[in-house]
Protein: Epoxyqueuosine reductase QueH
Amino acid sequence: MIILHICCGPCSIYPISYFKERGIEFKGYFYNPNIHPYKEFRQRIKALEEIQKIFDFEVIWDKEYGLRKFIKETFMLWDKPGKRCERCYIMRLTSTVKKALELKAEAFTTTMLYSIHQNHQLLKEIAEDLSYRYKIPFFYEDFRIGYQKGKETVKNLNIYIQGYCGCIFSEEERYSKKRKKELIKELKKSET
Ligand code: SF4
Structure:
């Protein structure tokens, strides 16, 4: 059995279909202290619950709102998206690995490997490192190949699709033109 960390409902559809089509046994694991604010967190849980009903699979839920945990983990990295996301990936994948060990799973993986908006290479490196340190296989698959298919399915099912990654900082980066400009400036500065 594989523990599949699920970051949100829409990103889970393709990986779930992938496992089901191949007869690979898995359990979903929802652990995302990075989703803010509270109403958005509840909405994403609801979207995954709808998908769970349609596709019929097991999910281990952590429905505790994690703003405080996230703030602690990413302390002082809030305005450094690269570093902040790295901490965020480590936080969620470490918890996934621990859950996989607790349940004596054969491997772990994450639906974050489906998103074209995440740092795929960094995610892979972090998961490989955790796999080595905790001595549990990491099931790697480039789920991005099914991105379009997954997106169309979510649209057809009329399920809520979030507009930003998750944390309150990513919400600002998505919707504030001022913050977007600042980030581009910072990026250019770091390249010179
Ligand atoms: S942008 Fe996404 S991956 Fe990065 S810290 Fe925020 S929630 Fe985590």
Summary: The chain has one domain: 2-167. The longest helix spans residues 81-102. The first strand starts at residue 2 and ends at 6.
